[in-house]
Amino acid sequence: xxxxxxxxxxxxxxxxxxxxxxxxxxxxxxxxxxxxxxxxxxxxxxxxxxxxxxxxxxxxxxxxxxxxxxxxxxxxxxxxxxxxxxxxxxxxxxxxxxxxxxxxxxxxxxxxxxxxxxxxxxxxxxxxxxxxxxxxxxxxxxxxxxxxxxxxxxxxxxxxxxxxxxxxxxxxxxxxxxxxxxxxxxxxxxxxxxxxxxxxxxxxxxxxxxxxxxxxxxxxxxxxxxxxxxxxxxxxxxxxxxxxxxxxxxxxxxxxxxxxxxxxxxxxxxxxxxxxxxxxxxxxxxxxxxxxxxxxxxxxxxxxxxxxxxxxxxxxxxxxxxxxxxxxx
Length: 329
Ligand SMILES: [Zn+2]
Known about the structure:
32% of the residues lie in helices and 24% in strands. It has 9 helices and 15 strands. The chain has helices spanning 83-92, 110-121, 140-151, 171-184, 195-207, 222-239, 251-262, 273-277, 308-317, and strands at 12-20, 25-33, 36-41, 50-53, 58-59, 63-68, 73-74, 77-78, 95-103, 128-134, 156-160, 187-191, 243-248, 267-271, 322-323. α4 (171-184) links the parallel β11 and β12. The longest helix is centred in the last third of the chain and has 18 residues, at 222-239.
């Protein structure tokens, strides 16, 4: 169990750090009193105040991680990081809030899924946390339950357009779900890939014995992301409901988002460090026997390097609004 946050009654003075403010960065001091920033500038220690030498360090607001799957049961296994280890790692990197995907599994209500996630996280986190609510199926009961989930403080849902027979929802269901979230003032994040065609290509690859990590990327090509985003925005053109695209991985997908925006649809987008920094050379070659490449299996997969620059540019100019890790290992 993790002990409650310590309140330093006498305050803390961070000295000689690179203080990062919205409009400038300068070397100076920052005083914390009663858990909030009391003042910044060139400050002298006060009586009884704890001081920390921050020379050579940046003093930044804590990061907010928008996308984790801590301790997620999936396909017969469970992700390695739980709320204790995952939030500890996050804190080491300067992240002070995580938003994890509480997940409703088949046959469950969202309340049951959410209760399980609260149990995993309670007294087990080093930092603040919140939840999105991920759906793995769609029916009238789940639709009527959305209002109480929103009333309970969760304003963001997640829908998968991939993982056929496991989590995938199709356009009629997406339309129905978005109609309800719009009525409730909630938002929905979408995993955008063409799940039906992925299923076809995965079956083909297996039948041919093409099961090495290298083949993973060929079962989920960039056009499947672009197509799914276009399909999603076709639904949204009818509704104009609040929504966003999670883990955008391709220049093609970004183009589809920009096209939707230019037609008046308000869609925002998240990308991930892996799509900005890594590329599909990590999967080795077709003939490669090296199973090390399995470490880079993720969905969507790593892409050709040519996708990176448009994603960086998209972040720089505000076409992509935020970065989350999709930490799921
Ligand atoms: Zn995810």
